[in-house]
Design goal:
There is one protein chain. The protein is α+β, with helices and mostly antiparallel strands. The chain has one domain: Endonuclease/exonuclease/phosphatase (Deoxyribonuclease I, Chain A, 4-Layer Sandwich), CATH 3.60.10. It is 27% helix and 24% strand. The chain has a six-stranded mixed β-sheet with strand order 3-4-2-1-14-13. A six-stranded mixed β-sheet has the order 5-6-7-8-12-9. The chain has a two-stranded antiparallel sheet with strand order 10-11. The two termini are 18 Å apart. 42% of the residues are buried.
């Protein structure tokens, strides 16, 4: 079961790129951030016609999160305590018992901005929700754009980023508190090397110079981490024209012990045959 997170930076503007990536990468679940449209304007037809089940929480022009799943979605949670009414969190329980959440943490603008305390409070709210979810002892994947580079190796230059938003000690401390609950960073479970990034600024030649940050993460409960078999960052979409400034981050879970796909979604095999 392949689960990916991707800040698409406008789902309508990147729809062609999204559909192309869905076809070539073949994920089973995709957590989208910054969809930047209300639910009524989300490209539902284009995705549902390809066999995707959707959970949406949109907002005009800003924010917006979504879950795309090959499996039916049995339960949705569209609000997070402390989100201020912004469309930054959506959670879905899938028919095979795996629970996923798409999370878009505020950037914080700068450490002097009044948005920085909002960011810290949002990270605290995620921790509170994560603690409750861990108590349910389910396989859970909390994925998204956390806007936090947790470790020195997650930034292109520590000296440049030290104390700045995205790498501030208070942000990093809150991220560590999430991990200390018992969550596993799926990428780091298989990759210890530095300078593997998921975001590159559009400015100052950041992409061709590889001046990036790793700020998109998939955090797994113990029940999901026990099934983790692979993870990675797919840089391909970032190098294409009219791309998002983020690129997908993914992991794969062994589905042993979960309900068979065809038991919960008989149409999947038919869809897969059409797509090939």
């Amino acid at each position: 079961m392949k689960i990916a997170t991707w800040n698409v930076n406008s789902v309508k503007a990147r729809l062609a790129a999204l559909l192309d990536w869905l076809r070539t990468a073949a994920p089973d679940v995709v957590l989208l951030q910054e969809t930047k449209c209300v639910d009524a304007e989300f490209p539902r037809l284009e995705l549902e016609s390809q066999g995707w089940h959707l959970a949406l929480r949109g907002q005009k022009t800003y924010n917006g999160v979504a879950v795309l799943s090959r499996l039916p979605i049995e339960e949705k949670v569209r609000e997070l305590a402390g989100d201020g009414g912004e469309a930054r969190y959506i959670e879905a329980k899938l028919a095979n018992g795996v629970r996923v959440a798409s999370i878009y943490v505020p950037m914080g603008q700068s450490t002097e901005s009044d948005r920085f305390p909002v960011k810290l409070a949002f990270l605290d709210a995620i921790r509170e929700r994560a603690a409750w979810l861990l108590g349910q002892e389910e396989p859970v994947v909390l994925g998204g754009d956390y806007n936090v580079a947790p470790e020195d190796g997650d930034v292109f230059d520590v000296a440049v980023m030290e104390g700045q938003v995205l790498f501030h000690p208070e942000e990093r401390r809150r991220f560590r508190r999430l991990l200390h609950l018992g969550l596993t960073d799926a990428f780091r479970a298989f990759h210890t090397e530095a300078h593997r990034f998921s975001w590159w600024d559009y400015r100052a030649g950041a992409w061709p110079r590889d001046l990036g940050l790793r700020i998109d993460h998939l955090l797994l409960s113990p029940q999901a981490a026990d099934r983790l078999v692979a993870s990675g960052i797919d840089k391909g979409p970032r190098g294409k024209e009219k791309c998002s400034d983020h690129t997908p981050v993914w992991c794969e879970l062994d589905e042993s012990g979960l309900p068979r796909r065809d038991a919960v979604d008989p149409g999947r095999a038919q869809h897969d045959n059409r797509s090939t």
